[in-house]
């Protein structure tokens, strides 16, 4: 029997049974070896398994392979530390073969001598929360108009990729010609469509490992790791050619492009950026003179 502050709120075994059977979270008991001795009926609504389909099997047999290390560390600490473990986030296997995120709080069960004889836990479905956190992270690194990476992500990637292993590394700058005029004449919705169209050109013509970002109103940058001058020129030519054939609601898409390749370790990426930007503005000036 479990007692509260007074006899009037004492809980008996039936009260506990009702609570466990109606909990929306999974409540489970594991043996010393981690085998499921008991799991509450919520496992059916949450994972599709009947309790009898899970009982008698190791809990970790339902844990995603990539999360086994997290689970084993948490479960192993129960016997060593003999204290509850909270916030264990693992993906668990649904009967239909899909995976859902669950956060478990686990407590060790001990005999009179203090030896751990098993454990008990409560697992809550955290899938929606994890998805929301992933979406927030995605939004923090992506441009909302084009879906490309934003300046914040670009700056982090520059630091990460600026290593000897990635050399030569080319930085390509691009600027949409006449974007301000299109915004002023046709409205920002038209300008957004031009941005989206050019973003699609970059996705199409750049490689999977290239980092494509919109870093300003009409400015884009592409980081091309392990890319020399000739290969960079070929990529830039493809971008220009595809752009020249793109028309958005009757408006021809036009861009100015410049690039610079880092060939030596002692060259700074800030300098490479400036030289690529200068080359882009020289091309833009030529376009205006035509």
**Helical segment tally?**
10
Structural class: alpha+beta
Fraction in helix: 40-55%
Summed over residues and divided by their number, the pLDDT gives a mean of 92
CATH topology label of the largest domain: Alpha-Beta Plaits
Rounded to the nearest angstrom, the distance between the terminal CA atoms is 90 Å
Overall outline: elongated
DSSP strand count? 11
Q: What's the domain count?
A: 2
Q: What share of the residues does DSSP label as strand, in percent?
A: 15-25%
> C-alpha Rg, in Å?
29 Å
State the order of secondary-structure elements, H for helix, E for strand: HEEHHHEEEHHEHHEEHEEEH
CATH homolog superfamily of the largest domain: Reverse transcriptase/Diguanylate cyclase domain
- CATH architecture classification name of the largest domain: 2-Layer Sandwich
Protein name: Diguanylate cyclase
Organism: Anaerotalea alkaliphila
InterPro entries: Biofilm_reg_signaling, GGDEF_dom, Nucleotide_cyclase, PAS, PAS-assoc_C, PAS-like_dom_sf, PAS_fold_3, Rev_trsase/Diguanyl_cyclase
């Amino acid at each position: 029997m479990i007692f509260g502050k007074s006899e009037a709120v004492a809980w008996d075994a039936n009260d506990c049974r009702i609570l466990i059977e109606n909990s929306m979270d999974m409540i489970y008991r594991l043996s010393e070896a981690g085998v499921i001795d008991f799991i509450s009926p919520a496992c059916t609504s949450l994972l599709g398994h009947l309790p009898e389909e899970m009982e008698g099997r190791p809990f970790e047999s339902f844990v995603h392979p990539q999360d086994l290390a997290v689970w084993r560390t948490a479960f192993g600490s129960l016997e060593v530390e003999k204290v509850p473990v909270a916030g264990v986030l693992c993906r668990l296997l649904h009967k239909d073969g899909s995976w859902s995120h669950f956060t478990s709080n686990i407590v060790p069960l001990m005999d009179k001598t203090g030896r751990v004889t098993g454990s008990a836990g409560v697992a809550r479905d955290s899938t929606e929360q994890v998805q929301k956190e992933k979406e927030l992270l995605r939004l923090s690194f992506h441009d909302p108009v084009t879906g490309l990476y934003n300046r914040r992500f670009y700056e982090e990637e520059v630091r990460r990729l600026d290593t000897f292993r990635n050399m030569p590394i080319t930085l390509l700058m691009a600027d949409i010609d006449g974007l301000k005029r299109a915004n002023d004449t046709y409205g920002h919705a038209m300008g957004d469509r031009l941005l989206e169209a050019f973003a699609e050109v970059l996705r199409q013509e750049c490689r999977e490992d290239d980092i494509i970002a919109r870093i300003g109103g009409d400015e884009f940058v592409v980081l091309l790791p392990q890319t020399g001058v000739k290969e960079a020129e070929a990529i830039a030519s493809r971008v220009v050619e595809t752009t020249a054939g793109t028309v958005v609601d009757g408006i021809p898409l036009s861009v100015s492009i410049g690039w610079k390749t880092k060939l030596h370790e002692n060259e700074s990426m800030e300098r490479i950026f400036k030289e690529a930007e200068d080359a882009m503005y020289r091309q833009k000036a030529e376009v205006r003179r035509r």
